[in-house]
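Each record in this resource describes a single protein on a pair of labelled lines. With that in mind, the following record should read easily:

===
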Amino acid sequence: MSLYVYQYVSDRQPILQRAKEESVVISSREILHNYVSPRNNIEIVDPVSPNRSVGKVYMYPTDDGWEVSGYYRRNQNDLWHPYLMLLNGDFGLILLTVQDTNDNLIEISALNHDFSVVPP
């Protein structure tokens, strides 16, 4: 048993993987915030801060980057809006898709090829 514990504690791979995953989520939060609510704070549910009562979230490595899903809302009176984000290997945005009815976001998505808004 002590050998197992030693190997578990001394194995840096899970620690490094977790640090990389946290970096992905931090980048995705910044991108989401910049597109959805650059002037105000939003509440985000993502793989680092999951909330099972809101819904499932995930982070998945792809061949050339990452997929991150989650939910956001602008305030307590707002509904939770799901999002899916595709990031490249350097955590840059490839595509962000949100489910929202905000007219301002719809206008922004018309001008950006890497951002889309779909109706609920």
Observations:
- The chain has one domain: 2-118.
- The chain has three helices and six strands.
